[in-house]
Amino acid sequence: MGRLLAIDYGTKRTGIAVTDELQIIASGLTTVDTKELILFLKEYTSQETVDKIIVGLPKQMDNTNSESEVYIQKFLVKLQHQISNIPIVRVDERFTSKMAFQTMIDSGLSKKQRRNKALVDEISATLILQSYMSSLQ
């Protein structure tokens, strides 16, 4: 069994989370400069067995796609071209950034630490991954 890998795509930074090999625990992995994302994913998937890539699907409150979906679609085309052997699943990511920020507050992080947008992105990716895993149960 391989890992599940989740992506909280952003135009500048992208948060990444993964599961353990038994797909039980979701953990933040890192935040990557989006320009380096495909290269990072190619290297990671060459070293680790990844069963699925879960990519956040940003929706508005009225269930329409957010403006960032245009950029995500372009990324997905490149990703499928570069890593064609791993299925890609989309998961609604509404409220993950707010939930990530609340998680940081609940964890007792200082205001300075909560301003770390890279950490917010990584936590958001973890929440996307947890959401996907919950949908399987």
UniProtKB/TrEMBL annotation:
Residues 2-100 form the YqgF/RNase H-like domain. It is an enzyme of class 3 (hydrolase). The keyword Isomerase does not apply. Its EC number is 3.1.-.-. SMART domains: YqgFc. It is found in: Cytoplasm. Pfam families: RuvX (PF03652). The keyword Cytoplasm applies. Keywords: Cytoplasm, Hydrolase, Nuclease, Ribosome biogenesis. HAMAP family: Nuclease_YqgF. Belongs to the YqgF HJR family. Could be a nuclease involved in processing of the 5'-end of pre-16S rRNA. This is Putative pre-16S rRNA nuclease.
